[in-house]
Amino acid sequence: MVLSCPPAVIQGMLAGIGVLILASQFHVMIGDMPKGGGLENILTFPDAAWKGLIPQEGVDSSHLVSARIGILTIAVIILWQFLVPKKVQFLSAPLLGVLVASGEAYLQKNFSIDYIEFRDSLGSSTHF
Prior knowledge:
By secondary structure, this protein is mostly helical. It has six helices and no strands. Helix 4 runs antiparallel to helix 5.
């Protein structure tokens, strides 16, 4: 007996998973904590976008800075694929986006965003 599942079902399931990941990571991108569940992340998406894009009194400015770094990363990824000649595109667009955004965050050390901290070196933080 052969069991099969239509490709549309698989694509719909993967699209749903992608929406849930996007909703939770969007909160992280703007310096906010993801909410308890997927539906809650989706429902609070507009509030999170408002916090990350519009300056508000009483709201920490780190959301604006985090959103700016996230938008920079996404812009580099998109522009790299459309504006750079194919000969140079052996460099991964997401890798370049992370490098550019990391460089910007490093140059602007007064950013009030969360950084990943390593003890002494990357090797000492890696455990096998």
